[in-house]
Amino acid sequence: MLGMDYCTHKILRNGIICNEYVLNIIVFIQYDGIRVSIWGGAKVESKVFNNVTDIVRDDLRQTITKGSKISIAAACFSMYAYKELKEQLETVDEFRFIFTEPTFTTEKADRQKREFYIPRMNRENSLYGTEFELKLRNELTQKSIAKECADWIRRKATFKSNITGNHMNPFLSIADKENKLAYTPMKGFTTVDIGCEKGNNLYNIVTRLSAPASEAESHLDTFEELWHNKTDLQTVTDTVIETIANAYNENSPELIYFMALYHIFNEFLDDISEDELPNEATGFKESRIWSMLYDFQKDAVLAIINKLERYNGCILADSVGLGKTFTALAVIKYYENRNKSVLVLCPKKLADNWNTYKDNYVNNPIASDRLNYDVLFHTDLSRSHGFSNGLDLNRLNWGNYDLVVIDESHNFRNGAAFQEAENRYETLMRKIIKAGVKTKVLMLSATPVNNNFTDLKNQLALAYEGDTSLINEKLGTKRDIDEIFRSAQKNFNIWSKLEPEERTTNKLLSMLNFDFFELLDSVTIARSRKHIEKYYDTAKIGKFPERKKPISVRTELTNGPVDINYNKIYSQLSSLNLSVYTPTNYIFESKRDKYAELIADKGGNLTQRGREEGIRQLMAINLLKRLESSVNSFRLTLLRMEELIDSTINTINQFERDGHSELSVDDATEDWDIEDANTDNLTVGTKVKISLADMDYKSWRGELKADAQILKELIQKLEKITPEYDSKLQKLLQLIGNKVENPINGTNKKVIVFSAFADTAEYLYEHVSSFMKDKYGIDTAVITGTIDGKTTIKGLTGTLNNILTCFSPVSKDRELLMPDSKNDIDVLIATDCISEGQNLQDCDYLINYDIHWNPVRIIQRFGRIDRIGSRNKYIQLVNFWPDLSLDEYINLKSRVEARMKASIMASTGDDNLISPEEKGDLEYRKQQLKRLQEEAVDIEDMSTGVSIMDLGLNEFRLDLLEYVKEHGDIGKNPKGMHAVVPSTDELPQGVIFVLRNVNSSVNIDNQNRIHPFYMVYIDMYGEIICNYLAPKKLLDTVRNLCRGKDKPIRELYQPFNEETDDGRNMSAVSALLSETIKSIVSDKDESEVNSLFAEGGTTALRTPVKGLNDFELICFLVVKDR
What we know:
This protein has 38 helices and 34 strands. By secondary structure, the protein is of the alpha/beta class. The strands form six sheets. Strands 1-2-3-4-10-9-8-5-6-7-11 form an eleven-stranded mixed beta sheet. Strands 20, 21, 24, 25, 26, 27, 28 and 29 form an eight-stranded mixed beta sheet that branches. The protein is elongated, with a radius of gyration of 39 Å.
């Protein structure tokens, strides 16, 4: 056979590696697989290997003999190829290897993905070889192979790398005393290239040339010439050994944790912009506030800054008692160091806290940071003039703040029941967010996800100025934010109608779309008390106190000589019209135009009629709340209401006598619960004047007299309930006395009593203070927010700070603020003016004298003493309940609201009674309150739906970022590494595998948030502890097991190594890996069947996952008993 062939010779010209192509005329004579060529007149003996029936490896096992000298130029080296030829390679005299492309060189290279082989593959991730190497790695024997390979390299091998980037032809040559052989092409020294497996090439043909052929000689001569060229080659043997050693070294658990993060979140490192990361050059990490933070708070600060820079907003929704204020102060310090202007918007009751941290006070622990933010109140958004907290609102440039921190941001809700005017939320959006400079928004909130996602959506809207287009592109989700929330709410509504046994959190998570989780992860940070206890080292931060089972107290209204109880009072209250609050309902139809313009000017666009109906409904509900609070508070409210009605009737009577009188309509809002939401627009405006001549005053007077008679009868009965016959008050005195006589922590006598109303708090102070002073010599104080505080300590000014400092001297730094004071207040009576933002953890006993209708408020109250780092081992919650069943109690509110709305319907034509959402909310509150009777719970635990506590992944990305900054790129480490960690009571023996699906680059399973990566926790018996559908939980678990453990745990490694014969026998772990893969395929099949019925289409029938060969092992964690 006559043929032509181009052969390539590697030559050196002026020190540069070049290619020379030579045309040769060849005569082929082939017999029995041996090809003899006439090469330019010289005879060349060669053999062709198709690596199907003729395998290169088998030939190498014959041609590599004792004393051989092997020279290879190839792109990559694999220790698995060494394993296949281990016996032969042990006999060689010398093994020389040149990487044909720059590999393991000292020049700084761009970060790139690295494959299994040692060293890395090129950036294009060569397709051949990976599948079979994957199978070998999944056998989990790489530790023993790597150890043997590294030892062999130290004794026999030398590695060099081409550093020029110029092309080199790949080959393998073997030289001994008798023969010189060349195998070409030998693109890599891997199991695929030597024919052990097909790989991804259509064919893999290798030719062996034998000397004295000039071609074989040429390969050897070229290699020799290159090997000694110090300009073009760099020795990398030590680096190769060091890298391979990573595969058999005993690894620290922390390294495995960050290896998992590196592979799962590698693209995050590539995509992240330096502009979106905290700039440490600002020095904020050298600040006093940073040094005072716990690790979990520092994690939050870094994550918040990242979210503010990327998305312009962030909600911090950590649980009560986890120090959101200090976390926010560190964020403020960061931005002030960048010369940014900061505004804190907070409830007025928290102003002292925020002012303390920016002013030059002796009790300011971060005074050296010299913070300079402005502090204003939520209510200031409804004002346009006057001074607030030292600022002139008339001249204030609201639009010039770079960062706004909104404390208790859940109080900003868009939309109110009786509102047509601009509320605080809309004012905030208009005056601060949209106006002036680009404003970032940090919201500090109670858990913003309960049984409705609207509040969360409205809070997030502050970050993107209410314009969804500003955030949709940044989120990178498939759907826009409005559609994501609509879909999530729809699925939640479906889930909430399931039978109780089906209505599980996991079921809900499987129904919610992937985009919803991505959205929450992008813009929220939420950690629960349980999360901190489980995933952080509480030895550094102290533990939470242990909650004792709540004490539920039910007392009758009175044990005195009067025939009255709760139900009789409720019955009489239901007969009230409360028409004194709705005078405009009685304006003659013919006279309405006369008042239309006047009324419209009061309170902006909100009509006077709408305001009146709102006031009437709130007053009806308020009566019930005050009855529940105390007999005294209820009686005082009835007296004020009676006085208003009598005054109105007298005005009407006067008009009848002299024919001239003008009615002045007051707001009558002094009795509202200060925590009632959406009341801003009901209190805006001045008095409205109405001429009685324009009213049907006779009908109105008739209804007023009917109400007055009911009130008079009630007041007469209530006046007979004196303090000694007030069953509830007497029970309170008994409880406090018992606590003082029998402390639950050492000698701690402190008790805090909460009430929603100042009237009740002052009534309690009057009787509790004298009782405690006379019987126990103990001092008492009261704080209501509406009057100056009072205390039985003589000479102590009753300011908020003074009283709280004497009540909780350790947490409030009394030694700094009042160094000469030894005064102790042991009983504190307070309203909800201190239910948020105060650290009173010196106290261990909290009494709710009345149950707030919002259960979250109860938990927030308890959060004053249930705080991380408390010195108390135990804390006790006591709840007073009305003397009626919970169903009666909950339905009470619905009955009152139904009656009020029925009258609204009659007067306004509005046929909306209680909406289905409100009915659902009442049922939700009922479930919450029922739980509160039995246990002290966290806010996030009150949710019957989804909590965002278990969804965020951003903290792991930032974990990785910090690690890479300090330790450099860890992608050079081989996959398949492992560490051994100790089991715990909650985390039994087993293995946590981190795998990657190799067949698809798209998200083939919308339920797996970290696709194509899969994490599974399996016990030693093959039972799945946690499947791949809960990556957040698994990442938290790995973090908990590994973080801070930066050294291998020898006492665990030693028995594991003995059990596995130092990595040679990994059959037990390998069997668990097989079971893990089966579980993924099984769970995936089930989720894909479910997806047939899900919104957004199915994930079934796409790229199939068959089994072990579809996955590569990234790393694994062995959980072992000590």
